[in-house]
Specification:
Distance between the termini: 53 Å
Largest sheet: 9 strands, mixed
Shape: globular
Structural class: alpha/beta
Number of helices: 21
Number of strands: 23
Length: 695
């Protein structure tokens, strides 16, 4: 097991992370100043105790006090980093007519939008111009007649105003607002190209600007040298970390076979570049060059490559680790790999403590820790005599180690497991190494002399790799879908893995009992969740963008009702399936159309009895001449601006509650809410969330 005395930074980073996590549990109502006061008091008390009682303290006590101070630093750093004036920004943006800001990111191209991050500088309102800094995510609608040509560092004017990124509207749906908060982005804006005015260029960091122009140069080289779109997408992702041109089907295939990690620029890519640098400078025999000059060149090149590829968590982790190892070797010091990992994590989290909540950060560090610790133990289980079998077994051991470390959290986030990950990685990892080498050679060759054959080789290597990935993907049972682990079950799974490692290392039976206890607790939580769901009856009106849907859930059975035909089944599944998965229900397959009563054809009135409760949906302007008698219902659902007022609604309908669907205009919903309060009408607004009816 670990010799903790040789791993100081493992302890430091662990308690720093603990401080970050504890700070997220402190009540937000206290405000930043109260958090800082609490942390300052803890720091002062600890410091006084340390200074005046030092002679009575043991080494263990001193160590615990210092680690407590590190945890305090982690908490303070998180709170300081996330100190925000979001509410003030929200109030200012409500008055905004136009804003000026600088583009602070490399542009991302999607099917319908070009995406930029912009830091605002000035906000124009009715009465004044306010100096105000806030990061926003800008979506520029694509227009073939008027394409957007904006770059990093451009100072631009934007018409209209940004708005707050909203939390998810449906239960357990992906929380995009939380995801963007990791990068301290709380606002977004959708705009047409003609509503943007370019004021100046090169107004941001000149070094980053130069690196991004170099990135654009390499991107253009790939697009010109690799002729087909599918291969272009893989080359851009693997060489430059640009994933916005990845083909959707190809991306699904790589994810399904467990090969998506090669498209995230990481340690593999950094290792290839470092290997090529060592190979290139091998003829130089000078000891001074190898001791002092080569480390500087290597570290500089690696960090420039990290800049080129967008500073993702995996590349930052890899480059930081390699930099520490290179520095240690240049000073003739043995570098403990676990300390290197911990130092890299500490540095990244100190500069951005929100990274601890990033899926990429978590997967990256878990994978590398799993490989470093488990690889040798797995590899030593078999010693093939043939060279080729040894290499195959070595890659297999790496794949197993990485999968053991990342499988629980991958299931927690993505709810799937690639059954053929061993076979795919035997092909994908060597192919990724070859593509990296071919791509770097193509960059060098085409920068010196324009020639087609390096691009031809690169293109056909990627084409062959895509064919292999597609072949594995199409095999029966390549992907196990619809898996679920709660956060508690995920933690228990990792505890079981740690206890299993301890059992094989120390050969103590108590660890076997602990493993079985973890497995039993995982099973008990899953069984309890299913038991609770089995005794649950509820009707859920989803907050969907296109189709009006109602899910009736009776125990473990579901039935979905829709007001009109579903055209975008994928979007509907994206909004509905997370809730079903969380409750242990079957995924969405079909639905039942809600119909109009025979005497109400073309009236805009639909009716459905769900779980012995009556629903009437008013989907168009009320045609009172078609209503011959008062319609009785439990719930009256108003859709698509059907009613402009509730004053006469009781003349035509008898109901328990009015439901204001999100398909109505937001302004109209607010107006109807006020009327409902004045008229003492029971109502529920779906303006920002779904509506759950329970029995």
């Amino acid at each position: 097991m670990f010799a903790w005395s040789h791993l100081p930074f493992v302890r430091i980073t662990a308690v720093f992370i603990l401080g970050i996590l504890l700070s997220t549990q402190l009540p937000q109502s206290w405000g930043f100043s109260y958090h800082v006061l609490l942390i300052t008091i803890a720091f002062m008390v600890t410091s006084i105790f340390f200074l005046f009682e030092k002679k009575h303290l043991t080494t263990l006590t001193i160590g615990c006090i210092l680690l407590g101070l590190v945890a305090t630093l982690g908490s303070y750093r998180y709170l300081n980093y996330n100190q925000s004036h979001v509410q003030q920004s929200d109030d200012i943006f409500r008055q905004c007519q136009a804003s000026t800001g600088v583009i602070t990111s490399y542009p991302i191209s999607k099917a319908k939008y070009d995406i930029y991050q912009v830091e605002t500088q000035h906000i124009k309102t009715d009465s004044s111009i306010i100096a105000w800094q806030e990061n926003i995510q800008l979506y520029v609608k694509k227009d073939t007649l008027n394409p957007s040509v904006f770059q990093y560092g451009d100072l631009i004017t934007l018409q209209d105003s940004p708005f707050r990124i909203s939390p998810p509207n449906n239960p357990h749906e992906f929380n995009y607002a939380e995801y963007m908060e990791i990068g301290k982005i709380y606002f977004q804006q959708f705009i047409a190209t003609e509503d943007i005015i370019l004021l100046k260029e090169h107004q941001a960091n000149p070094l980053l600007g130069a690196v991004y122009r170099l990135r654009e140069h390499f991107e253009n080289l790939i697009l010109s040298a690799v002729p087909t779109p599918k291969e272009q997408g893989i080359a851009l992702a693997l060489l430059l970390g640009i994933k916005d041109q990845l083909d959707t089907d190809i991306k699904s295939a790589y994810a399904a076979v467990g090969a998506m990690h090669v498209l995230a620029v990481s340690g593999l890519h950094v290792g290839v570049i470092h290997f090529i640098l060592l190979f290139f400078f091998r003829p130089i025999r000078s000891a001074t060059f190898k001791k002092y000059v080569l480390p500087v060149i290597s570290i500089t090149v690696l960090w420039v490559y990290a800049l080129l590829t967008g500073f993702s968590p995996s590349i930052l982790r890899a480059v930081t680790m390699f930099s520490l190892i290179i520095l240690g070797q240049s000073m003739d010091r043995t570098v403990n790999i676990y300390n290197s990992i911990s130092v890299s994590a500490f540095i990244l989290l100190f500069f951005n403590p929100n990274q601890i909540f990033s899926v990429g950060f978590q997967l990256s560090y878990l994978a590398v820790i799993g490989i470093i610790y488990l690889y040798d133990k797995i590899y030593q289980l078999w010693s093939p005599r043939l060279w080729i079998l040894d290499k195959v077994w070595s890659l297999t051991a790496v794949s197993i180690a990485a999968q053991v470390a990342t499988a629980p959290i991958s299931i927690y986030y993505f709810n799937q497991f690639p059954n053929y990950f061993l076979g795919s990685n035997l092909v994908v990892i060597p192919a990724a190494f070859a593509i990296m080498a071919e791509g770097l050679f193509m960059f060098l060759a085409n920068s010196i002399y324009l020639t087609a054959w390096p691009g031809f080789i690169l293109s056909h290597t990627i084409m062959w790799l895509n064919w292999v990935v597609d072949f594995i993907y199409l095999l029966p049972g390549s992907l196990k879908n619809w898996l679920f682990l709660s956060s508690t079950q995920t933690i228990l799974t990792y505890l079981a893995i740690l206890f299993a490692i301890a059992f094989f290392e120390l050969k103590k039976m108590r660890f076997a009992w602990l493993i079985m206890s973890c497995i039993l607790l995982i099973a008990c939580e899953g069984s309890w969740r299913i038991y609770q769901q089995h005794h649950t009856q509820e009707t859920l009106l989803y907050h969907t963008r296109k189709n009006r849907t109602i899910d009736h859930i009776d125990g473990l059975k579901t039935k979905l009702y829709a007001l009109d035909s579903v055209r975008d089944h994928e979007l509907l599944a994206y909004q509905i399936n997370p809730n079903r998965l969380h409750k242990g229900l079957p995924e969405l397959t079909d639905y039942t159309l809600i119909s109009q009563p025979q005497n109400m054809i073309d009236s805009g009135i639909y009716a459905q009895i769900i779980n012995e409760e009556k629903f009437i949906f008013l989907t168009g302007k009320l045609q009172s001449q078609k209503i011959r008698f008062k319609l009785e219902t439990d719930y009256l659902v108003l859709e698509k601006n059907a009613l402009s007022s509730l004053e006469t609604v009781d003349k035509y309908f008898e109901f328990k509650e009015v439901i204001l669907s999100n398909s109505n205009r937001r302004g109209l919903i607010r107006k109807l809410e006020k009327e409902a309060k004045q008229l003492n009408i029971a109502y529920h607004s779906m303006m920002d969330e779904s509506y759950m009816l329970k029995k």
